[in-house]
Design brief:
The complex is a heterotrimer.
Chain A lengths: L2 H6 L9 H27 L4 H32 L6 H21 L2 H4 L1 H28 L8 H22 L4 E2 L9 E4 L2 E4 H23 L1 H11 L1 H6 L4 H27 L1 E2 L5 H14 L4 H23 L11 H15 L14
Antiparallel strand pairs in A: 1-4, 2-3
Helix pairs in contact in A: 2-13, 3-8, 3-11, 3-12, 3-13, 4-6, 4-7, 4-11, 4-12, 6-11, 8-9, 8-11, 9-11, 12-13, 13-14
Chain B lengths: L3 H19 L2 H5 L3 E3 L3 E2 H20 L8 H27 L13 H7 L5 H24 L2 H19 L1 H10 L8 E2 L2 E2 L1 H21 L2 H5 L10 H19 L1 H27 L8 H15 L2 E2 H8 L9 H20 L7 H20 L4 H4 L11 E3 L2 E3 L2 H23 L2 H11 L1 H6 L4 H27 L9 H14 L4 H17 L7 H15 L8 H10 L7 H6 L5
Antiparallel strand pairs in B: 1-2, 3-4, 6-7
Helix pairs in contact in B: 1-3, 1-4, 3-4, 3-6, 4-6, 7-9, 11-12, 12-18, 12-21, 12-22, 12-23, 13-15, 13-16, 13-21, 15-21, 18-21, 19-21, 22-23
Chain C lengths: L1 E12 L2 E12 L3 E5 L6 H8 L7 E6 L2 E2 L5 H7 L1 E3 L12 H8 L8 H6 L2 H19 L18 H13 L5 E5 L7 H16 L4 E5 L3 H7 L2 E6 L2 E6 L1 H5 L2 H9 L16
Parallel strand pairs in C: 3-8, 3-9, 6-7, 7-8
Antiparallel strand pairs in C: 1-2, 1-4, 4-5, 9-10
Helix pairs in contact in C: 3-5, 3-6
The chains are: A mainly alpha, B mainly alpha, C alpha/beta.
Chain lengths: 359, 572, 269
């Protein structure tokens, strides 16, 4: 080709950020529609302040569970850069297995006399089961694949996810099973003059406690520092004398334990377990991790809470005013739309690494 | 213990057999005879487990233990005894009135029956130990076999298992070819005589081919076949087999092959997005759904619902399949670009969740009450018109089968042409290093959108057949599992590899169809196979040339597990 | 006449002023050496010129056209090509395919062309292959015989050469080389000096190169520009710049860490 031909195809579009403009316009349209929907909903006066309050707390509780599961995704991703797609099943394993322990505690009368201790035992047991599953997963499915192309562990994880789901279906059957009620956790508590469902209070409180302990662990302990170092640069960390394999195992163990505890909190909210209970919360938690900025621990918490709130409040607030029937069905439309909007404007999520400065 | 590795392998082997029992597989498998009156599938699986873990013991063993028969026998016996002892403990618990089944649902009388081979737990222990020891010894012996006897063993076992398990496929095929099957099969299992005859036949053929230096070389001995035309002849034979399949095998075969063809089509489309351009798409089912629903809306008598409610039209199909198809393509490409545009700058994993989200959005929308007047909610769109072909409207599965094959061939052609072109190179460069590709003059945005659009077009072709085949388009068919299946087909076959997609579809879609009678365990086994293949062959079954070269160049990996290291001896 | 002309170019990343008010030009047929201690802003300057970064201030003219705000692919089309400090090849592609990608902006086969594969496409493919092989052939027997190997399997120095060949395949007017001699032994450096000369004399490229190796800079450069802390501190012949007090101080002040690799400057993914 000659020089003259080179110049020809450089039009105005080479310089104008067309895509960016289109996206911003799109974002503005969706935001305006959402505000209009919200105004319409509020104008109907159909929902009282009490209802909103209730939805808000419900969202926070659900978000707390998402946040704890999301931590597992984020920890593993931060270190291995793989999406542990089977994490939802790790969550299910703990929650579903603890059902039988809970049944025993309940029928033996222990739960009635010692509800708090029972709950703690259940949390610990579920954490142990989930941790065991997570460790097996790491050992069998992921460790042989270090250094393989990135999609390979993802497919393995998907395979492992199916395998675990059907394993527990094989063990415990396919029916949805009801959990025994924990005495003392029915009814409301009055907090700051607001009456809140007791399980929700426990869930939110426990999640805050668990998250804070993890934060302190990562920031303050030697093992936590080793985890961060491996996340920064695995090679250099191993040169500095850090046993990378051990750190990875610990990461999976922590992620699994968090998922197991999240499982019990989930049970407090929904009171039932089944072999496929992990799939949807797993997906949501993954979304939450990305929303908050995958790899960031604070991001996982933030993403979880925001997603929980959006799911609880969003459909009714944005859609019901527009005359759309059964808005509850559209929950994931609302949450994924918001995820896309957030990623368009903050490509790294809320707290992820900022984008390179580039053309 | 002098052989800790063997004991360890044996314990794991026993645990695996117990696992298979506890999830109910052994019980279910015991309903299936492989050879009438001789061996059932549960026994095959248990023997295989003992054998595999005995082999595993050798893999870990060093020095003398690596060759001694004792290693295998120890491992096998330990596996058998472990299984037997746990079974006895379980039976004692049950006898003592402990309600084991309140937790482990499958620890039923049928479980004990299947795992003890119809005897009682104590006799079962003895039988399991003996089988374990025999299989362990067999594993040790197998390792010492010369190549030829080894081939014979593998051929016999493979043939019997394939014919035994595939009975439901082979019986109608043989009958379709006019071959009587009574000598070979009784109900769904091989007869002893039949098993012996086919085994001998298979071994003879195998050895003959081996002596001639392979199938192709052997073929050249047939008059008229020369080394230069052996390829076209093979190709023609393959084409005839594919074309004739629905006629000799009745509807079941056509259905299975049609589904495989559909996944080849979808896999080739996704391969462009993931394999060529390196964009991880977890929501590919969206295009499948778009194809199906657009065709259904345009050709359904009941569609109606749009026509009748919005345009006040008579309940007649708006148009026929062939007019709807190009419209569908355009719709899919537009939606592909719409989905692609917002996420162009996102990193791989973010792209994965966003595409997954789009897939879910589309599924939820077609399922919703809100859009029910258009998409029909959970019922979907019914009364989709038949496809006009060969002068008549038809929903004959054979005609649809040919249509799918034809479209799969078209996308095969497209995928092949694009791969080795300037466009394909631009995609490959982008996949390898986006910044540098842009630095070399590749417009990343343009080529990403192009990849999404091409993938969308091919995917919607696959979806378009769906309502034509079933007469309805309903949301149950467009779940995340479809996206995952297609992605698994691509990665399992080898990313970017076209033959890989074909083999991947055959294995991941075809095999489960054969195992349909184990329905409840289909996804269970599917998941396990997915994990195993990825661990044993991370580059896929038929790797793309580039990736294969790359993976091999990087060997050995820094920390390979025992499985990879041992399972890829041919790699270095 | 100036092929490339930068006036008052600045860029900052957060609180760091990486490049500040730099004037820079490269004349037609000239070889300009850019030197400076680690973190001086050399690679950042390259990234600005080639469109990877958009400068906060300043004007840039290339071959008579205003190029501020243009993307890298548009600049390649205009006739600019570069190599990278840490070699960045398309590792899973063959040596030949790497060079063939270089021809991207000079060719036009699109979707339909690729699918129909008519005469025009075939001819263009042949031409792409020929031009790519011509570029590989510039390095004698180093690359051409290995054209079907994977780029990742090549020796380090050959990977550097392949990067230059890939840039050559874009048929540039201006070639920007980022530390081409890094990691090379003395014999290979000698070869490189000769090759850079030939790139100008035979191929007619104007060349800008960043280099830490002073003998290489001395042998090839018509003119040398020195940067420190994002500011141009000296410009002139090698001897003028080498004797400049500010330059000596800049280097002496950092004598200890004149090691390889200003990683912070590199374009990162």
């Amino acid at each position: 080709m000659t020089t003259s031909a080179r110049r020809s195809s450089l039009g105005i579009f080479s310089r104008l950020p067309v895509r960016r403009i289109v996206l911003i316009v799109l974002g503005v349209i969706i935001t305006v529609a959402a505000i209009a929907g919200a105004r319409a909903t509020l104008a109907t006066g159909q929902y009282s302040g009490r209802v909103w309050q209730d939805l808000f707390v419900q969202g926070l509780a659900r978000g707390s569970v998402y946040a704890l599961i999301a931590l597992g995704y984020t920890l593993v991703y931060g270190i291995l850069l793989i999406i542990n797609f089977a994490h939802g099943e790790v969550f299910m394993a703990g929650a579903f297995t603890t059902l039988f322990l809970a049944g025993y505690l309940s029928s033996s009368g222990f739960m009635a006399s010692q509800p708090v201790l029972s709950l703690l035992i259940m949390l610990a047991f579920s954490a142990l089961v989930s941790m065991g599953v997570a460790l097996l997963l790491e050992r069998i499915a992921y460790r042989p694949l270090r250094g393989a192309p990135r999609l390979v562990p993802l497919i393995t994880a998907i395979g492992a996810s199916l395998f675990l789901q059907y394993t527990f279906r094989g063990f415990y059957g396919e029916q949805v099973r009801a959990y025994p009620n924990i005495p003392g956790l029915t009814g409301d508590w009055n907090i700051f003059g607001i009456s809140i469902d007791r399980p929700r209070v426990v869930v939110i409180g426990a999640a805050i406690l668990i998250w804070s302990s993890l934060y302190v662990f990562i920031e303050r302990t030697k093992t936590g520092r080793a985890m961060r170092a491996v996340g920064e640069d695995r090679e250099i960390a191993s040169l500095m004398g850090i046993d990378v394999d051990r750190v990875i195992v610990i990461t999976f163990a922590i992620g699994g334990a968090l998922a197991g505890m999240a499982g019990i909190l989930f049970i407090l909210l929904f009171n039932q377990a089944s072999f496929d209970m992990g799939f949807v919360p797993g997906l949501k938690a993954f979304t939450a991790a990305v929303l908050g900025g995958i790899g960031s621990i604070t991001g996982a918490a933030l993403g979880g809470l925001v997603l929980g709130l959006i799911e609880a409040v969003g459909p009714i607030l944005f859609l019901s005013g527009a005359g759309i029937p059964s808005v509850g069905q559209l929950t994931s439309v609302v949450s994924f739309t918001i995820l896309v909007l957030v990623l368009i404007f903050l490509p790294g999520g809320f707290l992820g690494a900022p984008e390179e400065k580039r053309a | 213990m002098r052989q800790p590795q063997a004991v360890r392998a044996g314990l794991i082997g026993g645990a695996v057999v117990l696992y298979l029992g506890a999830v109910g597989m052994l019980e279910r498998f015991s309903e299936r005879s492989i050879i009438v009156g001789l061996i059932r599938f549960n026994l095959v699986v248990m023997m295989a487990a003992f054998f595999v873990f005995a082999l595993f013991a050798y893999r870990r063993a060093t020095g003398e233990a690596n060759t001694s028969l004792g290693t295998g026998i120890t491992a096998g016996t330990v596996a058998g005894v472990t299984t037997g002892v746990v079974v006895i403990i379980l039976s004692l618990l049950v006898d003592a009135g402990v309600d084991v089944r309140s937790m482990f649902l499958r620890i039923s009388p049928a479980f004990f029956e299947a795992i003890t081979l119809g005897t009682n737990p104590y006799l079962g222990l003895v039988i399991l130990a003996v089988i374990g020891a025999v299989m362990g010894a067999a594993a040790g012996g197998f390792r010492r076999l010369q190549p030829t006897p080894r081939t014979i063993v593998i051929t016999v076992v493979g043939t019997v298992l394939l014919l035994g398990l595939g009975a439901r496929l082979f019986i109608p095929m043989l009958q379709g070819l006019g071959i009587p099957t009574a000598w070979l099969y009784r109900s769904d299992a091989l007869t002893i005589l039949g098993a012996v005859i086919v085994s001998v036949l298979a071994v003879v053929i195998r050895l003959y081919l081996q002596r001639k230096g392979g199938f192709r070389k052997a073929l050249t001995e047939v008059p008229g076949v020369t080394p230069s035309n052996v390829r076209p002849i093979l190709f023609a034979l393959g084409a005839i087999a594919v074309l004739a399949a629905p006629w000799i095998g009745k509807q079941f075969v056509a259905d299975v092959l049609g589904t495989v063809g559909l996944y080849i089509l979808l896999g080739l489309g996704l391969n462009i997005v993931v394999g060529y351009a390196g964009l991880l798409d977890l929501g590919y089912v969206a295009f499948f759904a778009v194809g199906a629903y657009t065709v259904a809306l345009l050709t359904a008598r009941s569609s109606s619902m749009v026509g009748a409610t919005i345009f006040d039209l008579a309940p007649e199909p708006l148009t026929n399949f062939w007019v709807a198809l190009p419209i569908t393509l355009v719709v899919a490409v537009v939606i592909g670009i719409l989905i692609g545009a917002p996420v162009l700058r996102l990193r791989g994993d973010y792209l994965a969740i966003v595409t997954l989200g789009f897939g879910e959005i589309i599924r939820v929308l077609i399922l919703s009450d809100w859009l029910k007047p258009i998409f029909g909610g959970p019922q979907g769109i019914t009364e989709v018109a038949d496809v006009p072909a060969f002068g008549a409207d038809t929903n004959d599965p054979r005609v649809l089968y040919y249509l799918i094959i034809a479209f799969a061939l078209i996308s095969l052609f497209i995928a092949g042409r694009l791969k080795n072109s300037r466009v394909g190179r631009a995609w490959a460069a982008m996949r390898e290093d986006e910044d540098i590709a842009e630095g070399m003059g590749v417009s990343v945005i343009k080529y990403k959108l192009l990849a999404f659009a091409m993938g969308a077009a091919v995917g919607c072709l696959g979806g378009a057949f769906f309502p034509a085949k079933l007469g309805v388009a309903n949301p149950g068919s467009f779940t995340l599992l479809v996206s995952i299946n297609v992605l698994a087909v691509v990665v399992l076959g080898g990313m970017g590899s076209i033959p890989g997609v074909i083999v991947g579809s055959a294995i991941l879609v075809g095999l489960p169809e054969l195992l349909r009678e184990f329905g409840e365990y289909r996804l269970h086994i599917y998941g396990a196979i997915l994990v195993m293949i990825m661990i044993l062959k991370p580059e896929g079954l038929i790797p793309d040339r580039r990736r294969a070269l790359e993976l091999h160049a990087e060997e050995p990996h820094e920390s390979v597990g025992p499985l990879t290291a041992a399972a890829t001896p041919g790699v270095q | 006449m100036s092929l490339l002309e930068l006036k008052g170019v600045s860029i900052r990343f957060g609180g760091v002023q990486a490049v500040k008010d730099v004037d820079f030009h490269a004349d037609l047929g000239e070889i300009v050496g850019v030197i400076g201690p680690n973190g001086a802003g050399k690679t950042t300057l390259f990234n600005i010129v080639t469109g990877f970064y958009t400068p906060d201030e300043g004007s840039m003219v290339f071959d008579g056209a205003n190029i501020s705000g243009l993307k890298p692919n548009a600049l390649t089309r205009l006739g600019m090509a570069r190599t990278f400090q840490s070699v960045r090849l398309f590792n899973a592609m063959t040596v030949l395919e790497n060079a063939m990608v270089g021809q991207h902006t000079r060719t036009k086969t699109g979707l339909t062309g690729a699918l129909i594969k008519g005469k025009a496409t075939l001819e263009e493919e042949a031409m792409i292959t020929a031009k790519a092989q011509e570029a590989l052939g510039f390095f004698g027997q180093r690359l051409l015989p290995r054209q079907n190997q994977l780029a990742s399997s090549m020796a380090y120095a050959d990977r550097r050469r392949l990067e230059i060949a890939r840039a050559m395949a874009t048929e540039p007017k201006l070639l920007l080389l980022d530390e081409p001699a890094a990691g090379m032994n003395p014999a290979e450096k000698e070869q490189l000096i000769e090759q850079v000369g030939r790139l100008r004399d035979e191929k007619g490229y104007s060349i800008v190169l960043i280099e830490h190796d002073m003998p290489v800079i001395k042998s090839v450069s018509d003119r040398v520009v020195a940067l420190d802390h994002g500011i141009k501190i000296a410009e002139g012949t090698y001897d003028q710049v080498a004797s400049n007090q500010q330059v000596i101080e800049a280097y002496l002040g950092k004598a200890g860490d004149d090691a390889r690799g200003d990683m912070d400057d590199e374009v990162s993914t």
